Amino acid sequence: MPENYLPVLLQVLIACGFAAATLSLSVVFGRSGRTNATKDSAYECGMLPIGEGSPRFSVKFYLVAMLFVIFDIEVVFMYPWAVQFRDLVAVNPTALVSMAGFAGVLAIAYIYALKKGALNWKS
After folding, report:
1. What is the pTM of this model?
2. Which of 30, 31, 74, 99 is the most exposed, having the fewest neighbouring CB atoms within 10 Å of its CB?
């Protein structure tokens, strides 16, 4: 039985030997790069790295992002229901009423967000 694993063991040893040899040869024959302040500085699309690292965003950006995630998750809940709609209604007709209630609550939340100005970028 162990003789069946000999080709696999030989392949693993050759792969490890090849990796070690190429790394060793790159250290021996490779040139070490010179460092200076220009090469060690951060490169951001040709712009000099001056100022703060991250810009400040408006709170509206985060509010819209949260609303997107919330409404997107609601769609994730609706999709399996829509796929199984015929079977659900055949077994229990209240499945349509429950999803209508779910969509109603979702619509009320959307109208509330609109009334509060959560999606108005100009203010």
Report:
1. 0.47
2. 31
